[in-house]
Amino acid sequence: MKKIICAQSLLNAKEIFSTIGNVEIIDDHLITHHHLQDAHALIVRSQTQVNANLLKDSTIEFVGTATSGTEHLDLNYLEKKQIAYADAKGVNANAVAEHVLQSILIWANAQQRQLQDLTIGIIGYGFVGKRLHQQLKPFVKCILINDPPLFSI
After folding, report:
1. Interacting residues of 58 by C-beta distance below 8 A, sequence separation 6+
2. Is the pLDDT of residue 153 over 80?
3. Is residue 53 within a helix (H) or strand (E), and if so which, with residue range?
4. C-alpha distances out from residue 86 to 55, 89, 111, 136, 137, Å
5. What is the pLDDT of residue 4?
6. Rounded CA gap, 15 and 73, in Å?
7. Residues 77, 98: contact at Cβ < 8 Å?
8. 24-78 pLDDT, tens per residue?
9. Nearest 5 degrees, angle CA 134-CA 140-CA 146?
10. What is the dihedral of CA 30, 34, 40, 42, to 10 degrees?
11. Which residues fall within 8 angstroms of residue 35, CB to CB, at 6 or more apart?
């Protein structure tokens, strides 16, 4: 059975991943290359730097991060070593869009303004921007979207 090293900060990791392998939980900051010598998968969060120093002489075939960012992963090294990887991009987009919508509603209420009378600008039309646009559409007549990298294609 495959050995899976999981960062301690991952809630319920043992229960989730034990269906596919033997899970060992290690404090995020204490994971070293020694732990990975006979492991097949590594599941982390952003506190663990996944790079050549960590993965040297390991049997890791897959790295997963339970974060939307990948700054803590040396993607070039993973690709060079043909180690598969996955991230959680967009996983929090709905929650962020809902938070922004709630902030707009609080502001509009404090200003005694109606949503349908506002012009709302969304800067960035990625995961969050698209969700926010979907949530605003039924209530706001004028929504402006600005995402130069997206619209300059």
Report:
1. 33, 36, 37, 39
2. no
3. helix 52-55
4. 16, 9, 44, 31, 32
5. 97
6. 25
7. no
8. 999 999 999 999 999 999 999 999 999 999 999 899 999 999 998 899 999 999 9
9. 65
10. 20
11. 5, 24, 26
pLDDT digit string (tens) for 70-108? Answer: 999 999 999 999 999 999 998 889 999 999 999 999 999
- What's at 48, amino acid-wise? T
Q: Which residue type is seen at 112?
A: Q
- 87: its two tokens: 């991230």
- Tokens for 77? 């090294």
State both tokens at 21: 């392998």
Query: What six digits make up the tokens of 54?
Result: 């960590």
Q: Tell if the pTM clears 0.85, that is, is over it.
A: no
Q: Is the pLDDT of residue 136 over 60?
A: yes
Q: Are 34 and 54 in contact (CB under 8 A)?
A: no
Structure tokens at 90: 């967009």
State the Cα–Cα distance between residues 117 and 17, nearest whole angstrom: 49
